[in-house]
Amino acid sequence: MLGHHYTHTFLETAVASVNAGCNLELSYGMKNNVFMHIPQALAMGNITLQMLRDRVRPLFYTRMRLGEFDPPDMNPYSALDLSVVQSPEHRNLSLEAAVKSFVLLKNIRATLPLRARDLPGQRLAVVGPFADNPRVLFGDYAPVPDPQYIYTPRRGLETLGANVSFAAGCGEPRCQRYSRAQVVGAAGAADVVVVCLGTGVDVETEAKDRSDLSLPGHQLELLQDAVQ
């Protein structure tokens, strides 16, 4: 709120936030947090002790429901590890969620879906800065994933038995340095071309907005070369 000029000080921000019902502050890395000014606001009478109790109660109720205050042997979550998180059931559910999240804008001549049974013997080219770079596949506020569980488009297609060639064209999403020869060489020899483009946290995150929706750098040129 301070950054948007709704308030002028952290004290004003704390008062406005608590009065509006906010009970949790996200201020990673800040030594002087907004909610550290709550005692001063309370002493000045800008907020009441009852209001503070009302804000804190659901936080601790949730923490108790999660078992944070129980002995570890009473908390079922304590026994969970990657073998559970990466179980076949959970991986299949993640795959189902990913499949159902796709948005298909066009499907000229019924090109999609690519069926695994039709791919052996076909030549696939996977091109673009997002084709085989695990680091750029996650957005803002994402966890740091274990690389062994990340399937890039290239890695995923290679599991289907197709003859897959790869060309990044440019090494990062900003695509300032572009190798047209790489892309043309891979796409020209393929039966099917998968072009992987986008932005990623290198280009846009919270507090790093863009003035338009254009593809960064030479990415549009990369796409046009692949189509040709």
Fourth CATH level, the homologous superfamily of the largest domain: Glycoside hydrolase family 3 C-terminal domain
Distance between the termini: 49 Å
Query: How much beta, percentage-wise?
Result: 5-15%
**Count of separate structural domains:** 2
Rg, rounded, reads: 25 Å
> Class by helix and strand content?
mainly alpha
CATH architecture of the largest domain: 3-Layer(aba) Sandwich
Number of E strands: 3
Sum up the overall morphology in one term. elongated
Largest sheet: 3 strands, parallel
Index terms:
Glyco_hydro_3_N_sf; BXL; 34% helix; 228 residues; Rossmann fold; mainly alpha; xylan 1,4-beta-xylosidase activity; three-stranded parallel beta sheet; single chain; 2 domains; elongated; 6% strand; alpha-L-arabinofuranosidase activity; Glyco_hydro_3_C_sf
Report on this structure:
The structure is a single chain. With 228 residues, the chain is mostly helical. The chain folds into two domains: 10-74, no CATH class; 106-226, Rossmann fold, CATH 3.40.50. The chain has eight helices and three strands; from the N terminus they run αααααβαβαβα. The chain has helices at 10-20, 38-44, 49-65, 82-85, 88-101, 153-158, 180-188, 219-227, and strands spanning 123-127, 163-167, 192-195. It has a three-stranded parallel β-sheet. α7 (180-188) packs parallel to α8 (219-227). The radius of gyration is 25 Å and the shape is elongated. The model has no long low-confidence stretch (mean pLDDT 90). This is XYL2 arabinofuranosidase. Residues 103-226 form the Glycoside hydrolase family 3 C-terminal domain. GO terms for molecular function: alpha-L-arabinofuranosidase activity; xylan 1,4-beta-xylosidase activity.
